[in-house]
Amino acid sequence: MQQGTLMRKVKSKSWKKQRYFKLQDDCMTIWYQSKRTGKTESAFSISDVETVREGHQSEVLQSLADEFPPEHCFTIVFYGRRGNLDLIAGSAEEAQCWVQGLRQLIEPRSFPLTSALVSRTWIRDWFQKADKNKDGRMNFKEVQRLLKMMNVDMNEDHALRLFQAADKSESGTLEGEEFVLFYKALTQREEVLSLFQDFSEDGKKLTLLELVDFLRQEQLEDEGTEELAMELIDKYEPSETARARHALSADGFLMYLCSPEGSIFNPRHRALWQDMSQPLCHYFISSSHNTYLIEDQIRGQSSIEGYIRALKRGCRCLEVDCWDGPNGEPMVYHGHTFTSKIPFREVVSTLGKYAFKVGHPSPVRGLGNSKSHGEDGYPKVPTSPSPTPQELKHKILLKGKKIGRLEDMLDGPGDDAPDVSDDDNAAEAEEERRRVKVRGTQHSSALQKDKENLAQALSDCVIYCKSVSFRGFQEARSHSRPSEISSFAEAKARKLIRDAGNEFVRHNAWQLTRIYPSGMRTDSSNYSPQEMWNVGCQIVALNFQTAGMEMDLCDGLFSQNGRCGYVLKPPFMRDEETLFNPSDPGSWEGPGPITLTIQVISGQQLPKVANTKDGAVIDPLVRVEIHGVPADQARQETKYIENNGFNPRWDETLQFQLHVPELALIRFVVEDYDKTSRNDFVGQFTLAFTNIKPGYRHIHLLSKDGTSIPPSSLFVHIRITE
């Protein structure tokens, strides 16, 4: 990669500043400085970069399309809520040099954390951070600084002993292999070594049979265990000699436990594993609210980034609020507010690029898709009124008002009198007056003043998701159709859950329901989606731009099944005659409660809390939360460990009883204990109970924004009993 490249940093059509960009010698940091002043403006780590996009793939670069060719332009996209960096190189060759170079530097992070990777990347990274005078050596003072940086408050005498043991040359400094020895002594996993020795007769290796015993007894692997043991040895044993003897060393054992096969998340459930041939109403569907907003609801920025981020997160239901703009061009924004605006055509173009890039090509709810239409202008659709995700692959469905019925559409155009649906309910009617909830180009006033003026062409695009008002479960049962959908504000949904929980579950077994946040949430905060999922609501719309527990639950539920955005509901929620009521699990003849036992053993390299003082070390604790039906809601936490974020050891056991485990989500949260104020967030990981692998498992923590923070993890032991 070129170093010291002069490029334009762009923030708007009028703000274009020339900056020198340079990759540091550590190949982990990029800084840039002003051409005019020579002053370094900022720097960022390669680990902060999620992806690099080529060409005019941001609003800013699209606005400059006439001025700069796409082959000169690229966008650096960061994890979390940090803004993108739009750059314009002096030539196509320079742009490609940076794009390809950045992609090569980003790529290794997708591999599992192994000892080899630790040696190659993390040890080098820590050495360079601690080597203050950059002489390639590290004295004891620099070692002490390193320990603080690594979140360790170690006794000075113990640190000195580690230092002297690694200083084989007795030079008073560490270099090369000496630092590697020091690092490995520091990162020794006693709890893993003890477990290894419990199953190893000689304490040095696990034979094939000993590994099989461990997999069966502790990991509860009961199918093809010998084949699995051979695969693990071939994949994770670093010694060729041990591999030839079908044995696993202590290093290989640790590498296995840190791998996807050793994760708490069942690796088989990462891929598409559920039946995708059920009716749409039998799935929970990842859904966003006001997708175009990336900030608050009143003055926030509207951006195509909202759509890109949501789609890359597996979202399958998007909102496009369309209003008349200058010269008749439709614009997307939050009507009657001060949010910024984006052209409707840019939104459509973005959906075309990103709708089916992540996971299974399952259908997206939002805008009509030309691919689903025949030569006569009428949709090529399955004849069933309840199509499946499998049948609707690569389709984009429009939810909105409609003239006539689906049955008429399937028979071809007819001359029946218009049958235009009314407002969904009183709460949504107010929202309709403020903002049309149709994902299309209709005018905001057309449906309000004269509903019979609804354009036939737009109406024809509405299939399977016709908006209808809700007038009670009995009325819906008698007169509604599976192709229709009703929407409820969160307060209305909660009232229905309290008053008629079982009827709500039955309703959702045959018809789609959408829930959206209260209009009072102008700060883009979220409600808990769990209570809506408990009654089978499929489209539970959240503000994806707002990090927190609610989005952790959403990400946790939809991280399975190939991240396709569809999760099959349990069988008792797909039965139209079910007796299940989440408020009274005893009324349902389920299999009975189960006991979930979690031993929280240790943590590894937990990150420091942002904006803490230099030298500060966290006091971590672990909280385990159960989110499910009301009877299952629970939380327990460990004690806190003083001044050790590097390798804290808890060895505490937490136990929970679950009455409806099929609906439960388990959230692991690490916090920095503070006796005088609220604890600070350190990391979390959330998953559905049905995706848990029992046994000794690692939990790889995520940040507040849902991004990985390697190599931070928890080590736990999971048991599930009836």
From TrEMBL:
Record's bilayer topology term: Peripheral membrane protein
> What Gene Ontology terms describe where this protein resides (cellular component)?
endoplasmic reticulum; nucleus; plasma membrane
Where does it mainly reside?
A: cytoplasm
**Pfam families tied to this protein:** C2, EF-hand_5, EF-hand_like, PH, PI-PLC-X, PI-PLC-Y
Class of enzymatic activity (EC top level): hydrolase
* Limits of the PH domain: 1-107
Question: Which EC number(s) does UniProt give?
Answer: 3.1.4.11
**Per the record, where are the segments of Acidic residues compositional bias?**
409-430
Its localization reads: Cytoplasm; Endoplasmic reticulum; Membrane; Nucleus
**Domain EF-hand spans what residues?**
118-153, 154-189
The cross-references to Gene3D superfamilies, in alphabetical order and at most eight, read: C2 domain (2.60.40.150), EF-hand (1.10.238.10), Phosphatidylinositol (PI) phosphodiesterase (3.20.20.190), Pleckstrin-homology domain (PH domain)/Phosphotyrosine-binding domain (PTB) (2.30.29.30)
Q: Might you name a Gene Ontology BP term for this protein?
A: intracellular signal transduction
Domain named C2: residues: 574-703
Reaction(s) the record says it catalyses: a 1,2-diacyl-sn-glycero-3-phospho-(1D-myo-inositol) + H2O = 1D-myo-inositol 1-phosphate + a 1,2-diacyl-sn-glycerol + H(+); a 1,2-diacyl-sn-glycero-3-phospho-(1D-myo-inositol-4,5-bisphosphate) + H2O = 1D-myo-inositol 1,4,5-trisphosphate + a 1,2-diacyl-sn-glycerol + H(+)
Q: Which residues are in the PI-PLC Y-box domain?
A: 458-574
SUPFAM superfamilies in UniProt = C2 domain (Calcium/lipid-binding domain, CaLB), EF-hand, PH domain-like, PLC-like phosphodiesterases
Keywords attached to this Swiss-Prot or TrEMBL record, sorted alphabetically, are: Calcium, Cytoplasm, Endoplasmic reticulum, Hydrolase, Lipid degradation, Lipid metabolism, Membrane, Metal-binding, Nucleus, Repeat, Transducer
Q: Where is this region: Disordered?
A: 362-391, 407-445
Mind telling me which InterPro entries this protein's record contains? C2_dom, C2_domain_sf, EF-hand-dom_pair, EF_Hand_1_Ca_BS, EF_hand_dom, PH-like_dom_sf, PH_domain, PI-PLC_fam
Alphabetically, the GO molecular function entries are: calcium ion binding; phosphatidylinositol-4,5-bisphosphate phospholipase C activity
Q: Which cofactor does it need?
A: Ca(2+)
What is the designated name of this protein? Phosphoinositide phospholipase C
State the organism of origin: Circaetus pectoralis (black-chested snake-eagle)
